[in-house]
Amino acid sequence: MAFALSSPAFGNRERIPDKYTRQGENISPPLVWEDAPPEAKSFVLVVEDPDAPSGTFRHWGVYDIAAERDRLPEGTTAGAKTESLGHGVNDFGNPHYDGPQPPKGHGVHHYHFRLFALDVETLHCDGKAKVDDMLEQAKPHIIAEAELVGTYENK
Q1: Is 56 a domain residue?
Q2: What are phi and psi of 68, to 5 degrees?
Q3: What is the pLDDT of residues 102-137, one digit of tens each?
Q4: Any domain includes 91
Q5: CA of residue 98 relative to chain centroid, distance
Q6: Is residue 10 assigned to a domain?
Q7: pLDDT tens, 41-61?
């Protein structure tokens, strides 16, 4: 089988529930992956909206996800930090998940949850690295990618 990313909260190309948006509880949805390459030493997750008026807008970046993992639970960035995941600074200026919040009446936006399997255990990013910079640092180490797309519209 192919490397795949899914969520028990919504299906591919389906609407993201309000709970996971900035209009709702603004917590990250649960994510699950399977059939990662056996040579993967870590994972990086990026959530981006290419439909944003200003161009691709990055909502979340997580790096140094251990190779043994196959999921991120709901609310991974909520509350006290309990694990050693690295978080890039998103385009809202926050080092955590910020869910969909498209401009009212702007139509349906597509949120790409992209999980990358890497050939390194750590990216050695500092705590102030932007999601875009984190992704650039990861690019030479990507060995596989899985994607889940959710949609959201602010009517």
Answers
A1: yes
A2: -75, -15
A3: 999 999 999 999 999 999 999 988 878 999 999 999
A4: yes
A5: 10
A6: yes
A7: 999 999 999 999 999 999 999
